[in-house]
Amino acid sequence: MQRAWVVCGFEGLDEISCAGPTRVWEFRRREGGEEESEGSVGGGVIKEFVVDPTEFGLQPHALETVKGGKGPEENAQTFIQLLDPNGKRDEDEGKLGPIRDFVLMNTAAVLFVAGIVEGLPQGVQLARESIASGRAWDAFCAFREWDRAQAGQ
Known about the structure:
The protein is an alpha+beta fold and 153 residues long. 41% of the residues lie in helices and 16% in strands. The chain has helices at residues 72-83, 93-113, 120-133, 135-150; strands at 3-9, 22-29, 40-41, 44-51. β3 and β4 form a beta hairpin. α2 (93-113) packs across α3. The chain starts with a strand and ends with a helix.
């Protein structure tokens, strides 16, 4: 592991907030020759900073706009509308926009921490392309099939 983030939105969320600032504690493994400094722990350095939606190249959205549905079925439908490239999106685009941005921000952070992209805006772009191309949906379907096989279904 080279890098890890623990995040807490200022509202108390356990993920990056779409509504405003998020506190980040980053562990980063020290590079060869890098001196130990204040904040050094376990072969790495921990630093604390704050990110907000604009650092991802996105606008903030009120938390009410990304609130879950009335139950698992409605949440699953929203998930399908968000990722399925063959699904209908027209009349739901206004509802899906803030949810999509919320997903894009958190996905971008994962891509950045994993070292796949150099910055958060690049992570948003890669995540957006993955959704638009259907690769995100394909990955979900492959995971779902794997999960079902593990469960013996």
